[in-house]
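User: Can you fold this complex?
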Amino acid sequence: MTAPWALLAAPASGGPDIPGLLLTLAAVLAATKLVGALARRIGQPAVLGELVAGILLGGSVLGVLDPGEPVLKTLAELGVLILLFEVGLETDLQALRRVGGVALTVGVAGIVLPFAGGYAVATAFGASTITALVIAAAMTATSIGISARVLGDLGRLKTDEGQIVLGAAVFDDVMGLVILAVVGGLAAGTGVTVAGVTTTALIAVGFVVGAVALGAFVARPLMAAVARVPVAGTVGVTAIVFVFVTAAIAAKVGSAMIIGAFAAGLVLHGTPQRHEIEKWVTSLGHVFVPVFFAMVGAEVDLRAMASSQALGLGAALVAVAVAGKVIAGFAPWWFRGHKLLVGVAMVPRGEVGLIFAQMGVTAGVLAGGEFGAVIAMVMVTTFVTPPWLGALTGPPPDGRGDGDSDSGLNELVSEGAPQVPPRRATQARPRLS
Amino acid sequence: MTAPWALLAAPASGGPDIPGLLLTLAAVLAATKLVGALARRIGQPAVLGELVAGILLGGSVLGVLDPGEPVLKTLAELGVLILLFEVGLETDLQALRRVGGVALTVGVAGIVLPFAGGYAVATAFGASTITALVIAAAMTATSIGISARVLGDLGRLKTDEGQIVLGAAVFDDVMGLVILAVVGGLAAGTGVTVAGVTTTALIAVGFVVGAVALGAFVARPLMAAVARVPVAGTVGVTAIVFVFVTAAIAAKVGSAMIIGAFAAGLVLHGTPQRHEIEKWVTSLGHVFVPVFFAMVGAEVDLRAMASSQALGLGAALVAVAVAGKVIAGFAPWWFRGHKLLVGVAMVPRGEVGLIFAQMGVTAGVLAGGEFGAVIAMVMVTTFVTPPWLGALTGPPPDGRGDGDSDSGLNELVSEGAPQVPPRRATQARPRLS
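Assistant: Here's the predicted assembly.
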């Protein structure tokens, strides 16, 4: 670090440089919160702002944030685990069953089309098989938080279309994580064999299914027992211990840690302590999750991204990413609702795409330009959705959104996702402070 | 690590071993919560149990927790900062003024007597000047959280005696931190000169006074501005950024980071957002603070502690620590209340004593036996107080304690401090889950 910053951050005697770390953490939290709030002002999700804050703090611009710093890397890893735990905690597997075949069809088509398209585009731009697979995988998963929030703001969350999008996004999340485990295994060097891919996929699916099945027997009695302990924070601490252990086990059995964290969330979703846990984990998320997004942003090399090759790849990926999800909305041909609305609502990739990209860099299969192109794809798909959905629908039926009446998704959604600008002035803004 | 544990914690490819760290963190959180809850069952403060959990996990027994591990060390450092921030946030400087001269007299005597006695004892046991100073300093500060909670459980918090103890403990806290900064400077090798001691003390006092004075102008408008930002967690994140920056500045101007964190708490105590911040920071405290106590416990070398020399030193320190505070209760000769009650309530040393001990080890001036003796002093003084106070007073006047009606101290106190056993069965247990 040669930034002026460094003058304020001389190493303490012995051990890690805590004052320097505190200043970097303070800069990361302040910048992500500030740019995140600015993003919200223009009707965009906070995650976009946090990513931009990371790009600004990173080596391309200010050079304050070193994405290789081991302690911050660890905090960022904890951040992804907490994020995926929160997503799992909010995910109602029953919702998939309720909206049934339509959602499943949209979900499958919305994974297959962008994956195939992304693979083809990346190969056409000269990427190796494994690089193309990572890029393709990053195209698959819709950001459930962003979709849900925008639909809620438009008052469409309770409609058939809204429920289909939620169901398909949940399916997306689960499948996206399975793909992550498979591609992660490949990127780590297992080689692309049918047997290898099948094994990794089975482990990932088996882990989620097993965790949820077993969890019903383990989690309820466990949480019921600790809920009786008269010491503050016992339920929350038990939940986070559960997350850490499940994530470590997932890594041990050859799957991804975030699969474990997500599964832990799915399991605890079914306990009566769910809302207490959600509330308790919120401030941990506020501190750790932005560190992850900022570290991803800091990894972006604007020079590498500005090459014509990277710009071309980025533009092609954006086209395929948008087209794949929009067409997927039309896949359930028998459905008589607003198919374009469904497709557009599935477009934002958000945090899951970023996790893929980060994994690709860590595994060494995404170079600067390819990484930049994937980040651009995530940012553009997330950016275009709120105004596009706003243009497709009229104002909310009752004059305000219903997003905040859907209690289950509130916390996650109010943090991660945008409000739609055209209707801002006339809308109530509940529970955002 | 050669524990069976290690089998589960093989390094991930590249970067820190996250799964292993997750398992260690999970073990620390589970063990501190479990033994902490057991401590509470027998009417003792949770902090005692967390310390015991650390001793069990450390090298002396299970060998699971390595007190030198850099990431855990960093998390523990964040834990102390969050703890001192919470203490500052709960501290009402006005209280000192209200109970006036009596509290000040108790506070001064309660610092001078144990400091002088501790220094004499340590020197008699052959300690060097700097080691004796660190040991003496660790004897000074009463644990405000533990005292307040026990008095509350006995229904004596609102009495003259209760208010005097709180006022004296607040004074203790501030002075203890000043002593920490001075002794910390000495331990880091500045040498014991009158000029050096005076400078460091002036910096520490100046920092607290300056921060509180400036803070009134800066913190209120800042918090008022961010409170208007409609993004979840803005107030909490701003508060923690404020803590980190203040702590880093304190370190930069030659004081201790925890002085900065404490000063940040004092400043934010005066803002209308205080309760929101308290609530927000609670779960961060639940995760980070036990890591600190566990790391201190893990540092304890039971073999070194079991030497006759260390046991003799420990016993002598306990005697001086108890006698010093009890006698201090009688220092305001003109006060006509229950002087013994005041003195006994000042006995528990709790977390501040641990911070001194930890600092002594880090600076290399406390050897295993001396460190163990200080830890024993902290544990015994904390352990004897609840039953002793219970024996001195009758049952609470109205049949239950008033601890929980004193809203300001609740969160901290309900976490850090014990209930008094003799009256457990007949007492309501509000707000502990």
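The CA atoms of residues 62 and 203 of chain A lie 42 Å apart. Residues 79-193+296-419 of chain A form a domain with the Na+/H+ antiporter like fold fold (CATH 1.20.1530.20).
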